Amino acid sequence: MSALPAEGQAVTEVLAELRGLRSADLPTHGGRTLAYVYDSGLDGVDALAAAAHALAASANALDPTAFPGLLRMENDLVGAAANLLGGTPATVGTVTSGGTESCLLAVLAARESRPDITDPSIVLPSTAHAAFHKAGHYFGVRVVTVPVDPRTFRAVPGDMAAAVDHSTVLVVASAPSYAHGVVDPVAEIARVAVTAGTRMHVDACIGGWVLPYLRRLGAAVPDFGFGVEGVTSISVDLHKYAYCPKGVSVLLHANAELRRSQYFAAAGWPGYTMLNTTMQSTRSGGPPAAAWAVLRHIGDEGYLGLAERTRSAVAAIRAGIERIDGLRVLGDPDATLLAVAAAEAPGFDLFTVADRMSVRGWYVQPQFAHEHSPVNLHLTITAANHGSEDAFLADLAGSVAEARAAGPVEVAPELAGAVAALDPETLTPEQFSGLLAGAGLGDAAALPSEMAGINALLAVAPAALRERLLLEFLGALYRPGG
Most CB contacts within 10 A, which of 94, 127, 169, 261? Predict the structure, then answer.
């Protein structure tokens, strides 16, 4: 049960065990994991980041007066992000632990700025990141989702305007959306926010550090930064296309007054007066120091070169996908993300394609159907994919051929019926265990080598039930000794 040995182990022994544990994880370098991780492909960046992290890991960013060096580094990170995204001398920001925290804080600041609204709501396109739903759940803010254009998957400004009312404290757009890699019409949506007198947040967690460079390279990137009237806050992750270690993000506000309601203070206890800029109190200085070092090392021209490599890889992979019989790219992506769907009646299952790609050493992320978006495979393409496009496409074509030979995954009618009969509100551990057994999973902690059957089963479950099933599965995974 306990991971604590009776006696301390030697450093070499501990590190050897750690390497063994990491050997089962997805590769984080080489461009073979096309989700979750971002790889610049540059030599020396990891070593620099690790050294910088070690130099500042023991420092605590809770109190900037005690650690002014961290304060300087965080201000530098905010300044770099603001410069990239059209900030003015009035622009301020906060370094956070990641995109989700940045989005949470944007919602929190909007809610706290309007104490006169007793039933606050936020309006967002249905493609906005799930972090905003999390924010609504955490902070008691009603989330109003607006369907997007069924062909382009972009938000529809007129529909967004129709959803805004007296309770709206924040309007959201994506640059780009995670699911399809398209940039919403930020300028038009910002006008909706201005007319309504409400805040406007642009979730540029993924695109904020790469879209400006793609524009410099000649790409037709829609405006989405502070140059757009009405944009009051922007989130951009440095651990994505700034290629910094996790987890570092920046939440920018157009001015200090907009940021003020994000902060928290508590003096009504006998200890120190707690002052928090983020959801966290204690914050390690390691991540911001590592990010600061990486940004200083790569520099503006370095990021332009990385964006050029990424853009080339995206173009080659997208063109290659369109040549594979049975595959298509959804929408018209603006950035570095692709959603790969099956053509009409393809005769194969994309979940099987994902499994076969895994056998070949690639991770592509299945995305379930939602509204007009069919089941698809998500690809996050980075600079490290440049040079291996042909290998990826050859393996993708081979995986499609094997999936076609295997035929579509079928969910047994009795199993589908059992799923349909489940109520997510009253699901019992016994029902969950029975479903696992029916799906061929006797032990939730023993992950199967192939996930197509499991994903097909999840695909027939309504979203609320899928959430509950996966939460039960997650709980079964996180067990001491597991």
Answer: 127
